[in-house]
Amino acid sequence: MASAEGDVPAEMQDRGKWYGDAVDYWKSVPATVNGMLGGYGHISPTDIKDSKRFLKNFLDLSDKQDENKPSKMRRIEPLTTEDTSTTQKIKPFTALDCGAGIGRVTKNLLLPLFNTVDMVEQNADFLEEAKNYLGDKKDRIGQFYPQGLQDFKPEPGRYSIIWCQWVLGHLTDGEYYSIICKLYL
């Protein structure tokens, strides 16, 4: 329900309560794919497949031989209508997985395409489980950031891609805008 302070729902006005409730909720969730997807673990293969299909619009996979060799990526310019088929290619060194959980997206989507993936996740227990879930791929994780996305300050220029899947809806409206600006710059 909107409040007198404009269109901001009342439950989002108390930042401490909003994020505190989220911390409490995620502490109660099992560190499994099913837990990460709110009981919809069965959709993970479709979710990953469609995410790969989306990314293929920006990746040059012609020289891809195995999952340990990153692909080339077209530079994505925001809010442009130009044809990106001629945009300069860049090598994707590091991806950032926002709201990474146990690493479902990192393992199945990002690591096959990038040299290194950094993971930001507010639940440190999920990041610990990610080390098990990722298996031998955990050596390709650059950094584990055990903090909420709302508090994360990315290193400028570090990332070839910043992936936010199933996480932005957990931010307050104001911090959604703020994190998009921080991640873009």
UniProtKB/TrEMBL annotation:
It catalyses: N-terminal L-prolyl-L-prolyl-L-lysyl-[protein] + 2 S-adenosyl-L-methionine = N-terminal N,N-dimethyl-L-prolyl-L-prolyl-L-lysyl-[protein] + 2 S-adenosyl-L-homocysteine + 2 H(+); N-terminal L-seryl-L-prolyl-L-lysyl-[protein] + 3 S-adenosyl-L-methionine = N-terminal N,N,N-trimethyl-L-seryl-L-prolyl-L-lysyl-[protein] + 3 S-adenosyl-L-homocysteine + 3 H(+); N-terminal L-alanyl-L-prolyl-L-lysyl-[protein] + 3 S-adenosyl-L-methionine = N-terminal N,N,N-trimethyl-L-alanyl-L-prolyl-L-lysyl-[protein] + 3 S-adenosyl-L-homocysteine + 3 H(+). SUPFAM superfamilies: S-adenosyl-L-methionine-dependent methyltransferases. Its EC number is 2.1.1.244. Keywords: Methyltransferase, S-adenosyl-L-methionine, Transferase. GO terms for biological process: methylation. GO terms for molecular function: N-terminal protein N-methyltransferase activity. Pfam families: Methyltransf_PK. InterPro entries: MeTrfase_NTM1 (IPR008576), SAM-dependent_MTases_sf (IPR029063). Coiled coil: none annotated. The keyword Transferase applies. S-adenosyl-L-methionine binds at residues 99, 104, 149-150, 165. Gene3D superfamilies: Vaccinia Virus protein VP39. Belongs to the methyltransferase superfamily. NTM1 family. This is Alpha N-terminal protein methyltransferase 1. It comes from Pocillopora damicornis.
